[in-house]
């Protein structure tokens, strides 16, 4: 079986500069070889970091992104670079979570996408943010996101 060549515009397989903001980050997509099949793809970013827009302090989250691909797959290296671009980005938890979900949905046009942002406590309060597109395709199995509710110590 011959390998299909991927576009040279992809970040995959070559050195690229780390983007210093989400706006400068590029999300790449590749053709889905199983486009006629409903299935789930999950990306987990357990060490997501951004900056509080008020205090400048770091904020940390565990992100879980689930999507049912359509014609496109999200290329993982570009997602890693995009997620890393938030390290110096000042935005509230809700804005970061929804912004990531909307950007991915716009780039790959999945059949369905959801993102769970499980933010670690600051000021004693954890914040969980959830966003999704449309309805889940019929006959899809979607496992629980697997992130335990925050219980504090003990």
Automatic annotation (TrEMBL):
Which pathway does UniProt place it in?
Answer: tRNA modification; tRNA-queuosine biosynthesis
Pfam families in the record: QueF (PF14489)
Q: Which GO terms describe its molecular function?
A: preQ1 synthase activity
According to its UniProt entry, one GO biological process term is:
tRNA queuosine(34) biosynthetic process
What is this enzyme's EC?
1.7.1.13
Provide the Gene Ontology terms for cellular component.
cytoplasm
| Binding annotation for substrate | 74-76, 93-94
- Lineage, top-rank taxon, reads Bacteria
Could you tell me what reaction this enzyme catalyses?
A: 7-aminomethyl-7-carbaguanine + 2 NADP(+) = 7-cyano-7-carbaguanine + 2 NADPH + 3 H(+)
Active-site residues?
52, 59
The entry sums up its family as follows: Belongs to the GTP cyclohydrolase I family. QueF type 1 subfamily.
- What's the name of the protein? NADPH-dependent 7-cyano-7-deazaguanine reductase
């Amino acid at each position: 079986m011959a390998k299909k060549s991927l576009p040279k515009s992809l970040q995959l397989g070559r050195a690229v500069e780390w983007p210093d903001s989400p706006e400068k980050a590029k999300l790449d997509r590749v053709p889905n070889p199983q486009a006629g099949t409903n299935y789930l793809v999950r990306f987990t970013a357990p060490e997501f970091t951004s900056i509080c827009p008020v205090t400048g302090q770091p904020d940390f989250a565990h992100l879980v992104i689930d999507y049912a691909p359509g014609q496109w797959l999200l290329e993982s290296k570009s997602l890693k670079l995009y997620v890393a671009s938030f390290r110096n980005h000042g935005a509230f938890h809700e804005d970061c979570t929804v912004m990531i979900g909307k950007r991915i949905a716009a780039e790959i046009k999945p059949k369905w996408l959801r993102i769970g942002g499980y933010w670690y406590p600051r000021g004693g309060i954890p914040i969980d943010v959830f966003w999704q597109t449309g309805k889940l395709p019929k006959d899809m199995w979607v496992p629980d996101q697997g992130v335990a509710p925050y219980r504090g110590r003990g």
